[in-house]
Amino acid sequence: MSVQTQIQPPLLLQNAVVVFSKNYLPLARINIRRAVVLLVSGQAESLEFSSNRQWEIRSPSLVLQVPEHIRLIGSNPERHWKIPPVSRREVLRRDNHACQYCGSGKRLTLDHVIPRSKGGQHTWNNVVAACESCNSQKGDRLPQEIGMIPRNKPKAPVHPAIAFSDRFWKTQTLETD
Ligand SMILES: [Zn+2]
């Protein structure tokens, strides 16, 4: 089931092991050296998938199988993450520093998609990055009134681990296709 390969020193530097949270959310890729520390110190356990590779690490006192996927046992890193406040910095980051109407990266401001004067809230679902020019062109009007619809439907940023998780599962699908 598992193919054992002799470990080569340069491989230690590669991010070959995927670490999962206690809740089976893939968090990040780490190198084997770090994975060994987590396994030996009891902070992580091997996570068995059907066709995993394993690396065999040998020292005079220890033979350790390092799987491709490990799972943290103790802490729960995703619990400590909160959705950031709707600030200029966070909104620009979410929108990749691009005006959500014309794509410009210059003179960016925050625009309330539904204007505040019409009951729009200062929330992740209603605030987008907009350049000064688009913002003043849109003014106090509703998106449909002036035909200015944000390119991406605004929503709250996701936990970094969830973003990693999405990318991870996409690559998994590609590999098994
Ligand atoms: Zn613009």
Description:
The chain has 177 residues and is α/β, with parallel strands linked by helices. The protein folds into 2 domains: 3-79, no CATH class; 88-146, DNA Binding (I), subunit A (Orthogonal Bundle). The protein contains 5 helices and 9 strands; from the N terminus they run βββαββββαββααα. The longest helix has 17 residues, at 160-176. It starts with a strand and ends with a helix. The mean pLDDT is 82. The site of zinc ion (ZN) has 8 residues, from strand 9 and helix 3.
Content-based structural category: alpha/beta
- As a percent range, the share of helical residues equals 10-25%
**Total count of strands:** 9
Number of domains: 2
> The biggest beta sheet, please?
4 strands, mixed
- Which sequence of SSEs, written as H and E, runs from N to C? EEEHEEEEHEEHHH
Low-confidence stretches: none
How far do the termini sit from each other?
19 Å
The helix count comes to 5
Protein traits:
177 residues, alpha/beta, DNA Binding (I), subunit A, four-stranded mixed beta sheet, three-stranded mixed beta sheet, 5 helices, 9 strands, binds zinc ion
Write the layout of secondary structure elements.
Elements: E1 3-6, E2 17-20, E3 26-30, H1 32-40, E4 44-46, E5 53-59, E6 62-67, E7 69-72, H2 88-94, E8 108-112, E9 127-131, H3 132-138, H4 143-146, H5 160-176
Parallel strand pairs: 1-5, 2-7
Antiparallel strand pairs: 2-3, 4-7, 5-6, 8-9
The structure holds zinc ion (ZN).
